[in-house]
Amino acid sequence: MQEPLEPQERLDRIVRDIAANMVAEVCSLYVLRADSVLELYATEGLNPNAVHLAQLRLGEGLVGTIA
Questions:
Q1: Among the listed residues 36, 42, 26, the one whose alpha carbon sits nearest the alpha carbon of residue 67
Q2: What is the C-alpha separation between 67 and 55, in angstroms, rounded?
Q3: Does 49 have pLDDT greater than 90?
Q4: Given 3, 6, 17, 21, which residue has the most CB atoms within 10 angstroms?
Q5: 43 pLDDT exceeds 90?
Q6: How far is it, in rounded angstroms, from Cα 67 to Cα 65?
Q7: Measured between alpha carbons, how far is 39 from 8 in angstroms, rounded to an integer?
Q8: Which pTM was predicted?
């Protein structure tokens, strides 16, 4: 029986699977925090070192505008 994945491992797998199924080079998941900041939680195709460090405000950049 396989051990359950940690939350970060689950997010990484979900993003990787979405990118593969959509044949996309980049797929990222941002979470809207209580302070109205979008935080990068998982990515495929971007620098993985940016996870939990990259932040955007609502209305900032493409991601912030779409959110």
A1: 36
A2: 13
A3: yes
A4: 17
A5: yes
A6: 6
A7: 14
A8: 0.87
